[in-house]
Amino acid sequence: MQNDNKNLVSLLSCKSYEYKYDAVRSVINRSVENLGGWSLFVSPGEKVLLKVNLVMKKAPELAATSHPVFVQAVSDLLMEQGVQVIIGDSPGGLFTENRLKAIYQVCGMKEAAEKSGAKLNYNVGYSEVKNPNGRLLKRLTNINVLREVDKVINLSKLKTHGMMRMTGAVKNMFGTIPGTLKAEYHLNRSEPEDFADALIDIYLCANPVLSFIDGIVAMEGDGPTSGTPRNVGVVIASQDAFAMDFAASAIIGAAPQSIPTVKRSIDRGLCETDISNISFVGDSLQSFILDDFKAPVVKLINPLSGDYPHFIRKLVDSTCQPRPIFLHQKCIGCEDCYKNCPPSAIYMKERRPYVDLEKCIRCFCCQELCPKKAVEIKRPLLFRFLTKS
Question: What CATH number is attached to the domain comprising 221?
Answer without folding.
Answer: 3.40.50.11440
